[in-house]
Design a protein that fits this description.
The protein is of the alpha+beta class. It is built from four helices and six strands. The protein has one domain: Phosphorylase Kinase, domain 1 (2-Layer Sandwich). It is globular. It starts with 9 loop residues before the first helix and ends with a helix. The chain binds adenosine-5'-triphosphate (ATP). The site of adenosine-5'-triphosphate has 16 residues, from strand 2, strand 3 and strand 4.
């Protein structure tokens, strides 16, 4: 795992996609913000129990960026997920490209006083699978047969 993240560009990420042997990397928040249009609604793909998933647009390719919600509650789950993903490499498992664990201090007003708060961002980056979720695929198929039969 390469711990140097600051210099990674969208082009580097694109090169990783082409190189099957490239290891997952730590990715800078600024890169993930850039390719998701600052996590814009237009680039949202879907939502799960713990995260929102966005399209990350590179020059010629697309990746999926999973942004965890309630990061304080699910820190252990995030660490466990990264740990597992780093160990798995299989043709039937979506390819893991890297993660971002960013914490920044921000002055916030609390109880009438300014306090320094930690703002956490926890993200995972995967190869993009263009055919939608299994649920959509199955229900789409069922709807298709219902429409054809009746
Ligand atoms: N690599 C990917 N490529 C394309 N779409 C994806 C990718 N990963 C997730 N998605 C989309 O985003 C949705 C949410 O994914 P997410 O992994 O957060 O949750 P989930 O697997 O559906 O449920 P859970 O919260 O139980 O993990 C998925 O249903 C899918 O439509």
């Amino acid at each position: 795992m390469d711990r140097r993240s600051s210099g990674i560009t969208p082009r580097d990420l694109e090169c990783m996609l082409c190189d099957e042997t490239a290891e997952p990397k730590t990715l800078p928040l600024s890169l993930l913000e850039e390719i998701t249009g600052d996590f814009s609604d237009e680039q949202e793909i879907g939502r799960g129990g713990f995260a929102v998933v966005y399209k990350g647009k590179l020059e010629n390719r697309t990746v999926a960026v999973k942004r965890m919600s309630n990061t304080y509650m699910y820190e252990k789950e995030f660490q466990r997920e990264v740990e597992c993903l780093m160990m798995v490499k299989h043709k039937n498992v979506v390819r893991f490209l890297g993660y971002c664990a960013d914490t920044q201090g921000s002055m916030e007003k609390y109880d009438g006083k300014f306090v320094m708060a930690d703002v956490q961002q926890r993200l995972l980056c995967f190869e993009y699978l263009p055919k939608g979720s299994l649920h959509e695929y199955i229900t789409g198929r069922i709807m298709y047969y219902v429409l054809v039969l009746f």
